[in-house]
Amino acid sequence: AGVTLKTDDSSNGIAVDQVVFQKRIQRQLQKSPRYPGVLQEFITGLEAYIENPDRFRSCLLPCVPHLSNGDSSCSSVSSFQESLLRMLLGIEMLQTLIINTLLEKLPEFMSDGAAEGGLSIPHMIINQLKWLDRVVDAKELSVKLMELVSVAPVEVQRDIITSLPEILEDSQHNDIARQLNALLQENTQLTVPILDSLSSLSLSSSLLMKVREAVMAMLAAVQLEDLPVVVKFILHTVSASDANEVVCNLRKKLELEQCVLPPVLQASQIRIKSKGAGAANVSTPAGGSSQDSVTLTLDCIKSAVRFQKTISEAWLKVIESADDHRVIDLLVLFILHATNSNQSRRGAERILKLKVRTGLIQEALLQRTFRDYSQVMRGYFSSILALAQSLLRSPDPCVVPFGGHMHRHSFTAFDSYCQQEVVGSLVTHVCSGVGGEVDMALDLLCGLVLEKPSEMALYSVFVKGILDYMDNLTPQQIRKLFSLLSKLAFGQQQQGSHIQDDMHIVIRKQLSSTVPKYKRIGIIGAVMIVGSMAAFRPKAKESQAGSLSQETLRQVTALLELVKSSSESSPEAAALYYDELANLIYSSSLDPQVQEMIGTSVLDDFQDDFVVDLGPDIPGSFLFPACAMYNLDDEESQGCIAVNLLPLLANETQNKGE
């Protein structure tokens, strides 16, 4: 008929096209005087031939085309041909008998692993049954396949179940779905293949609803690694009429808090596992696989809300109507904001603001979400940052702090790229000139410098850019700005040292200005720099002489002298300088050498400017009589001194009059 059978384990050869081969076999059988009994004889001979495992394997492999001399059909042989058994299955009079033979042979190989080359005989047998042009007795085939499922090992069960949509005709889909639904309740190991198969079957709406309800009921008990498939099946079988109900039930049953262990327990599990296994076996964190499963689950939700408008609307309604919010609510809001739909994006932003304003979503939930799901949330960083920016610039003071929390947690939980974006965002808010927005952004930057100094030092060049936008900042905001810049530039982290020269240039430029506004900026900035340069390092507490190097002490002294000389001509500037110094001494811990130097300098200035020796007469003409009051010196002292208030006031009044 055109097929050459091999006696070894090599593939059978074929010299004609498979259609020609099938027609020849069918014609020979029909012409036989023993027809139809010859069909059973043919099957008996085939069974005897494939009794040998190598021959059976050859009959399952595609035939190799080859030319046969004198055969006019050889020119039509294509480069790919089906296996011998697959071609025999295409002959309708033999199909049922061949199927019975294959399914009877399958149990013989159930316990065998994959053969050399990774080929599994049960898998090859099942593949023979896929995509047949016509199944003669589909009902009988479905019965036999389900009988095999009931006795086969798990791997074979999975293979059969996932192949059912490709084997059975549409007329059998509802019947097989009912059986799979029943099996789903009995065997959780088969959850994924059953749901994969059910997703590909053509089911009636009533049966589909029944199956979905059964799947929803078992959601809490499903294995974590199976969760993405379960959620995908539930969402992809939703209709517009029941979307709200299904999403509401899914939200209630999807307890993500139980899916990912807290970091402390993850570390504990790793230690327990490492005691009984080598380091190579525990190189993957315990929480990695669980976070991967949660990520895949959220990807299923993301796919559903992106391509099904009814699903996205249902999620928005369900979250808006809820009062007891959980991690899933925040994550879904981030997902909805990440979609291309403007309606979903605006809806997610509106609901988040509403829930924050009413106190139903608080910072504790946000912190827990970042702590346990940072790996999951990394994929939605752009949406998280956009929402944080929207909250931070909101005119509603109730939601602004929550936007700050989102910025801070994003910086501490994510990688360097995200950290850079967060710093850039906060710098933009500072440069906006909007009062509340500027204050919150500066407070966040100051907090991050204290909490993560090494990381923040890497992005000091971005923060330095705020120096170009100081015109719109208040004195208090300028104080915060120079406080964080000086900590970055002169702190113990060397990464920020490259902006020291820039800061000195800015300070000198501002101090030399004759405009009071800019001179004020220079004074505030210089004192903040002194506070960072002269900070008392805890590790040097035992050294009472101080921990500053002579070079640093020289720079601090020079900077203070520069501020002093720049403010001498303006009483307002001088007053601000002493005010800032007093605030620095009160609020900071300075090196003892610097404290002593500042004390000596201020005392000398006070004595030179305000303290005079008091004689019997007070020279000068005044608007009212001058006298010494309050007994500054004891009566027994030889020389008297006084604070020279009235003469100084009189001189100033006279100068103004002139």
TrEMBL record:
Q: What Gene Ontology terms describe where this protein resides (cellular component)? A: condensed chromosome; nucleus
Q: Which GO terms describe its biological process?
A: double-strand break repair involved in meiotic recombination; homologous chromosome pairing at meiosis; interstrand cross-link repair; mitotic intra-S DNA damage checkpoint signaling
Q: Does the keyword Disulfide bond apply?
A: no
| Intracellular or extracellular location(s) | Nucleus
Question: Which Pfam family, giving just one, matches this sequence?
Answer: FancD2
Keyword annotations of the record: Isopeptide bond, Nucleus, Ubl conjugation
Which portions of this protein are annotated as coiled-coil regions?
A: none
InterPro entries documented for this protein? FANCD2 (IPR029448)
The Gene Ontology terms for molecular function here are: DNA polymerase binding
Family, according to the entry, reads as follows: Belongs to the Fanconi anemia protein FANCD2 family.
Q: What is this protein called?
A: Fanconi anemia, complementation group D2
Q: Which gene encodes it?
A: FANCD2
